[in-house]
Design brief:
Layout: E1 8-9, E2 12-13, E3 16-17, H1 20-31, E4 71-75, E5 78-82, E6 88-94, E7 97-106, E8 111-119, E9 122-131, E10 136-142, E11 145-157, E12 161-172, E13 175-183, E14 189-193, E15 202-208, E16 214-221, E17 224-239, E18 242-249, H2 274-279, E19 280-284, E20 292-296
Antiparallel strand pairs: 1-17, 2-3, 4-5, 5-6, 6-7, 7-8, 8-9, 9-10, 10-11, 11-12, 12-13, 13-14, 14-15, 15-16, 16-17, 17-18, 19-20
Length: 316
Amino acid sequence: MCGGDRIVKREESCGEKKSGKHVLEKWLLTHSEVLKDPWEDSEWEDTSPLDNYPVVLDPTFGQDNYCECIQNKRLGGDCSYVWANGDTYKGHMEDGVKSGYGLVTSPGNNIVGLSGDWREGMLDGKGRLVTQDTTVMEGWFRNSCLHGLARKIEIKKFRTFRQQVTWLGRYRSGVAYGRCWQWQEGGGYLTGIVDAEGEFSGDDIAFVYPDLETALVGIFAKGVMISGKPAELEAVDIIDDIAEPVFSISDSPAVRHCRSSRESVGQDPLVVDQYEARTVQVRSSQVEGGGEGLYAKRDIKKGEIVAFYNGIRLLR
């Protein structure tokens, strides 16, 4: 599919185009269900050609001389192999090469499991990579490298530990490619066309706040904002099942990322955060002697971010 015509989807209700927030919220929700693969159907397979130097994820690729394995067992129609470096393969074989469903492990490469269907010794089609830090990468593979739609799932601690989809996008020849979305600690998403190394670097990268309406759009380097202007989400198109946002950028002065330290809360402490400005306000407390307090300016859902606190950082 992705090697041919692009599929553009615009949601409408009662003849009216739905808001960008509504479309983005629905897309993120349906693609963040951990137990439901949004790209399982074969229609999402990427048929575009590989580059000359693809990034191969299978550490046993090219090691098909199973006579050198220190352990070689037959398990019914399947096989189990262990190489001297600790790498293993368990699964079906045909004529001495991986063929059919199989699982590769590689302690030296932090791979708990690389699984899927193998064709002529290479992982092709839907696959799943699990690393030792419990990170899961699900996506389409070609010749044992990620090639097509993919998503990353990580264990995050909120009130309890839970699985969180932290990355959505596409790979090309083993490297992140095109429009990608990355969930951020504390809420919100980074989105943009990633560079040749798969990084969020460029002059049209956006941080979308947790309300999925306000944003900062501008220059980023490896996910860190160098200079960004306040913006509003105007619309969202779904192109090849990836959300493509359209922003309205304000004429307000650009802001920048400035990490606080032990001595300073940042170089621009009085710059108003646009998300906080529409969410909360400081007013005199109604409690006698209470001084000032923080008040909500709009309805806030349970679990929604209220404000971002940037204080002095102390060493433990």
